[in-house]
Amino acid sequence: MEKDLDVKPAKQKDVIEASPPRSVQSPLPDLCPGFTMAFMLRESVRFLPATSRLAVRSISCSPPLQSPAVQAKTKKSLTKPGVKNVVVVDGVRTPFLLSGTTYADLMPHDLARTALQGLLHRTNIPREVVDYIVYGTVIQEVKTSNVAREAALGAGFSDKTPAHTVTMACISSNQAMTTAVGLIASGQCDVVVAGGVEFMSDVPIRHSRKMRKTMLSLNKAKTLAQRLSVVSRIRPNYFAPELPAVAEFSTSETMGHSADRLAAAFAVSRVEQDEYALRSHTLAKKAQDAGHLSDVIPFKVPGRDTIDKDNGIRPSSMEQMAKLKPAFIKPHGTVTAANSSFLTDGASAVLIMSEEKALALGYKPKAYLRDFVYVSQDPKDQLLLGPTYATPKVLEKAGLTLADIDVFEFHEAFAGQILANLKAMESDWFAQNYMGRKAKVGAPALEKFNSWGGSLSLGHPFGATGCRLVMAAAHRLKKEGGQYGLVAACAAGGQARPWNDCGSLSSVT
């Protein structure tokens, strides 16, 4: 894959082929929904060694960053008769930054607008060609509840271009993309921009419910006596703020607690989790230095510096990570700030078209978007196991096996969540007793898995991560000569979704 992945109309004759340790930030709040996507790649994938449900497996911290380039192989196309081919032309994202840093004085629509403008610049797509815009977000700014519309207007799109916002926790931008696929597949649109944004530097904090009711009553009072009567009912505890919930509404349990219990259930040790987190940061740093994270666009923050890199990548050491105390279940938990994703600000956007329209406009797409599946399970005991349930379903729907997949991109909410899913996927016992399947689907080989880092290191703006996963898979497919890929994520509420997608246009017939 070239470092310059800008996509421009073919008429321009461009050829597109496809530190020192830092203090660790607060762990991720409990707002991560589940999602799984499958992209088409080449080269067979090794299964992890068979393990029992409670087996412990060591994770190497220094796997090879890249696999050697693979020779192109001819594999079947997943084109379906009578169904439009839907393609990703390109995608961009703002740098993902630790909340409370350079973006702190902005608003969510500022980030989303920047991503949309970056996509327009990257692709040279005329604004009037875009039929629809869909954006995902989780914690909404009340002043811009339809952030898709506000960002689109700010980016210069016509006020005649519809835009709406969706929310599905950490798979919100995944939902935005599948909405785009549906609009195109049904013939409603030919060109859709999908994306997502999250801004954790300034989350809404409400008055208590008692205070809100009092203020509404005060607004209705007509006379001075009525106003004084309402004010006289105010008590000191009315002024206590109502902070955003970081727990599952249905269970009142934080996602960190769920991750701790899941790690314990699958005997994922603290050492394994720290090793995996260190792997994520190490690979992300190497990918960043090598220029592989080419979906990142520079952002001149008003009154601040131009930002062109993610700032949460923090390679450390096992010794320093071991010093951190458990973040959720104290004192014996294994989930810490070091092996959890951190609060992040960022936005993303992808340009999705029907293949016919893309070729007519002179674009060479980066990937086909094929099948996707949403799944849900018990939000208490299986909150973070969405990828395990979703992966075999999307493979079967696409007519593929795990061995057909060359690139895996899974959302890393917690290191323990990733490792528990890998063990569950590799367990016949779990497949038979919990999934109603005769045998396991198998777990991805680590050399194919998140080889440019993941959410633990790159960051996780809840509403924007899905687009990052998709573009990482598409770029890795090109770089590694692959055909099929799979993207997956866990989600709040015990949900998940897989997606099947295809590599560069030249590799699939």
UniProtKB/TrEMBL annotation:
Biased composition (Basic and acidic residues): 1-16
Domain Thiolase N-terminal, first and last residues per copy: 86-356
PROSITE patterns in UniProt: THIOLASE_1, THIOLASE_2
Gene3D superfamilies: 3.40.47.10
Pfam families (alphabetical): Thiolase_C (PF02803), Thiolase_N (PF00108)
SUPFAM superfamilies: Thiolase-like (SSF53901)
Chief site of localization: mitochondrion
Top-level division of the source organism's lineage: Eukaryota
Keyword Acyltransferase: yes
Pathway assigned in UniProt: Lipid metabolism; fatty acid beta-oxidation
Residue ranges, annotated region (Disordered): 1-27
EC number: 2.3.1.155, 2.3.1.16
Domain Thiolase C-terminal: 363-496
Record keywords: Acyltransferase, Fatty acid metabolism, Lipid metabolism, Mitochondrion, Transferase, Transit peptide
Enzyme class, broadest EC rank: transferase
Reactions the enzyme catalyzes: butanoyl-CoA + acetyl-CoA = 3-oxohexanoyl-CoA + CoA; hexanoyl-CoA + acetyl-CoA = 3-oxooctanoyl-CoA + CoA; octanoyl-CoA + acetyl-CoA = 3-oxodecanoyl-CoA + CoA; tetradecanoyl-CoA + acetyl-CoA = 3-oxohexadecanoyl-CoA + CoA
Cell compartments where the protein resides: Mitochondrion
Family statement: Belongs to the thiolase-like superfamily. Thiolase family.
Function: Mitochondrial trifunctional enzyme catalyzes the last three of the four reactions of the mitochondrial beta-oxidation pathway. The mitochondrial beta-oxidation pathway is the major energy-producing process in tissues and is performed through four consecutive reactions breaking down fatty acids into acetyl-CoA. Among the enzymes involved in this pathway, the trifunctional enzyme exhibits specificity for long-chain fatty acids.
UniProt xrefs under NCBIfam families: AcCoA-C-Actrans
Quaternary structure and partners: Heterotetramer of 2 alpha/HADHA and 2 beta/HADHB subunits; forms the mitochondrial trifunctional enzyme. Also purified as higher order heterooligomers including a 4 alpha/HADHA and 4 beta/HADHB heterooligomer which physiological significance remains unclear. The mitochondrial trifunctional enzyme interacts with MTLN. Interacts with RSAD2/viperin.
Name under which the protein is recorded: Trifunctional enzyme subunit beta, mitochondrial
Naturally occurring in which organism (per UniProt): Ranitomeya imitator
